Amino acid sequence: MPDILKTKDGSERKVGIEVELSGLGYEELVVLCTRLLEGQSQQVNRYVSEVKTDLGAFLIELDSDPIKDLDLQDSRLPESVRELGGHAMSVIDAAAEKIVPLEIITPPLPFSEVERIETLCDRLREAGALGSREAIYYAFGLQLNPELPDLEATTLLRYLRGFAALYDWLKARHQLDISRKLTTYIEPWSSAYIDLLIDYDYAPDMKQLMEDYLHHNPTRNKALDLLPLFAHIDRELLARYVDDPRIKSRPTLHYRLPDCDIDNPLWHFSTVWNDWVVLEQLVTNAEDLAHMVRAFRDSRKIRLRNLTHSWPETTEQMLHERNYV
User: Fold this and answer.
1) pLDDT in tens, 222-231
2) Which of 63, 123, 177, 260 is 20–30 Å from 304 (CA)?
3) CA quadruple 120, 123, 129, 134: dihedral sign
4) Domain map (residue ranges) of the chain
5) DSSP 3-state helix, strand, coil percentages of the chain (rounded to 5)?
6) Taking the model in full, what pTM does it have?
7) Count of other CB atoms within 10 angstroms of residue 3
8) In terms of Cα–Cα distance, which of 177, 75, 68, 163 is closest to 132?
């Protein structure tokens, strides 16, 4: 667990988690999750179900809006297509479950309850869930949405600097060989923004931090996506740079991992979580964070040492020396 477990107002910090997988049918996954979470399920609409538990409502859905929203009785469709009805949907269902990931979206969970996701993932693997390793067309991910301790610019800046410095280490630990060869790992932020972020003298207030980030990174498609957080802090300012109805307001970071290796018996959700906790611990230690960011800044310069030493290996060594891993 991180050192900081409570928010500024004294409540326990929470995290939303999203897990993508395949290998199970949609209805099968709903039944399994309902049993494993000891909840009650209710269908919301096609390919979207809600499992109500003591922790809140979990969503189980097919991660494809066009298929979820498909209605073969839509009067705008040709009559010949509408007449196929259930037969066509059966074919679409079978195809969708083979190539489109199913997704489990948790409610905001108290940090103290995160272990239940470890148990859930283990039980789903035993039931036949598959992840990114299984086939070349699977690119299933896992996402963490950890609530920040507070919404001060100085706090957010520490998290951003820590993530920039640890990014290559995290990438090396969590990207499968198969997806490395076939898909592009989501990059953190633009190189120019990282240079600005780790500059000695960079000390923005929240408005300046938002403007700088959005100038360089006006997109959701980043390994650490700040747009939901910015929507929560100042949606008006965000709208000047990005107009996307998919952005949901929440006081969290949005960390996207490229792979969910759920069918690998050596893989555990706790590994992903514990690596995030390394970042949390680094961020709360001002001296160690400054040391890491200084070394990261030096690693980006043209020097002989940087040609012979890999930054992920250097990061691992530094984390070991200071007892983070």
Assistant:
1) 999 999 999 9
2) 177
3) positive
4) 12-129
5) 45, 15, 35
6) 0.87
7) 11
8) 177
